[in-house]
Amino acid sequence: MDRIKRIIRDNGGLFVALAVAAALKAALLAMNVVPFNADEAVVALMARHILQGERPVFFYGQAYLGSLDAWLIAGAFALFGPSVAAARVVQSLLYLGTIATTYALGLKIFADRWAATAAALLLAIPTVLVTLYTTATLGGYGETLLIGNGLLLWAVRLRGSAGATPGVRSTVEWLLFGALAGFGFWGFGLLGVYLLPIAVALIAPNSYREDTKGAKFLLVFLRVLRAFAVKHLSAIIGFALGSAPWWWAAASGGAAALSELGGSAIAGASAHGPLGNIALHLFSLVVLGLPVIAGLRPPWGVTWLALPLWPLALPLFFGAAGWAAHVARRDWKKAMLFGVGLTALGAFVLTPFGADPSGRYFLPLAAPLALFTGDLLRRVWSERPRWAIALLAGLIVFNLWGTLQSARAFPPGLTTQFDAVAQVDQRDLPAVIDFLRTHGETRGYTNYWVEFPMAFLSNEQLLYSAALPYHPNFSYTRRDDRYPPYAAAVAASSRAAYVTTRHPALDDRLRAQFPALGVTFSETTLGDFHIFYGLSRKVTPAELDLSPQP
Question: What is the distance between the alpha carbons of residues 17 and 141, in angstroms, rounded to a whole number?
């Protein structure tokens, strides 16, 4: 009992941070300001289907982003029943784990409880970017942050024994370390931004104090080579085992798994050639990326947040970045942590993922940035304690201000949709579901942003095919219709309704083309949703001209 009391007393800041983070998540969910959008609905549907016996390897309709998140949510559904709230409880628990492991990194890497506590508090009330993507799920960000932190902690431990003669216990530990890395890599390839600096840290040899003159040099070299070969080979084998689902899918699906892992599925990923893409991504990083990382704007827009506190937030942001570069030169552990941020930024500029302006690929910077900020404030604390506390409090207020400002602006609220046309006000969806049920329109055609939330919230009584465009210029990709059983159910139905969102030009086309086919219909509008129902015969999109506008 005394030991427990001592742990609570010594780590009181961590428990405060966890309580504050849980309270913020609960408040946002109670306010209902985080829309339940299609990507999150796909993961929830996958979880439901897992409980029904389905075994998906990846996010529906693509060859990357493993189903780990769906499996965890399936566990919550088994305990509490399928619901949006249950899915988001999983994300909240994952994030609490990320805060706890960030605190542990502060103790291990910076060896300072003040810095660790400051980092935990900064993550308890983080920027809007971090708040959004750790509340709503897109399929793997929460797991990536937690596993990435876990691997960093484990790497610190393994590096300490890197030069020792390998034994069975040590070999097994390296094998398990590799397995966790591989498992996380299958869950989301974004984990690679952790794996590269970790690999560099573990491969770089420790300094040895043994006398290496003469023949002893060869003995020491052979001992180090043996330790390297056995331990690192064990980690590689573990990685292959942990990532086995990805390798299986890559072997059976051809080049799709590899190309999509590299970002080929990102819209507009290769539109300007290699050099043009790099230049565009660098511009996007500076103009759009840095403001969202610093919390100056939300991921989905260019609305400025907490503007009066910018004179505080901006110097601290750039100060922490400069401090990180400074201290990383002297300590391999800090260099490894700094490497996570550099790798994330480099991957954004050099790969197709830089075509995504939402900011979600910057999430791995959250923990390192909080830790280096905490360490910088710890330096201030050593000379001016009151200033350090004031700066920490001011930064937390800045983050909270931005979150509340975004929450009040509903719609869109805290949305995962950075394209305005996809920012559908989902609060009207229950009324749409009731209307369609009442009129017997359980099958039909819609767009991606309606199909999956409607399927989940209706307990899959309403199955629609995402065969309609939602972009104003009528551009469309078959990738939107990513779950074939729903399309098959619609194809087998003798009737079909049409549900569109925020697309008057499409409504006009349907309104003109149905009569041209001799089809009568009724229509109604519910919020952002426009419904064409009661068609005198079933009409498929193939019978209509939905071609893109020039």
Answer: 21
Cross-strand pairs, 403:
none
CB 424 within 8 A of CB 450: yes
Report the C-alpha gap between 125 and 506 in whole angstroms: 42
pLDDT of the residue at 359: 87
SS3 category, 16: helix
Host H or E run for residue 313: helix 310-327
Question: CA of 19: how far to CAs of 90, 185, 394, in Å?
Answer: 16, 30, 19
pLDDT in tens, 145-188: 999 999 999 999 998 765 555 577 888 999 999 999 999 999 99
Mean pLDDT of the chain: 90
Q: What are phi and psi of 442, to 5 degrees?
A: -85, -5
**C-beta separation of 364 from 221 below 8 A:** no
The answer, yes or no, to whether residue 360 has pLDDT greater than 50, is: yes
Q: What is the mean pLDDT of residues 249-253?
A: 72
Q: How many CB atoms lie within 10 A of CB 431?
A: 12
Which amino acid, one-letter code, is at 354? Answer: G
Question: How many Cα neighbours within 13 Å face the side chain of 104?
Answer: 17
pLDDT digits (tens, 9 = 90+) for 404-443: 999 999 889 999 998 888 899 999 999 999 999 999 999 9
Could you give the 3-state DSSP secondary structure of residue 437? Answer: helix
Rg (Cα) of the chain, in Å, rounded? 26
273 with 216: CB under 8 angstroms?
no
Return all residues near 352 (Cβ < 8 A) that are at least 6 apart. Answer: 262, 263, 264, 266, 269, 270, 277
Rounded to whole angstroms, how far apart are CA atoms 453 and 84?
A: 10
CA dist., res. 109 & res. 443, Å (int): 56
Q: Do residues 305 and 128 make contact, with C-beta atoms less than 8 angstroms apart?
A: yes
Q: Cα 441 to chain center, whole Å?
A: 35
Unique residue bearing structure tokens 């074939």: 484
Pairing between β-strand 522-526 and β-strand 497-501 as defined by DSSP bridges: unpaired
Mean pLDDT, to the nearest integer, of 112-140?
Answer: 96
Domain boundaries, the chain: 12-408, 422-543
Contact between 102 and 149 (Cβ < 8 Å): yes
Cα→Cα distances 384→29, 309, 350, Å? 38, 21, 41
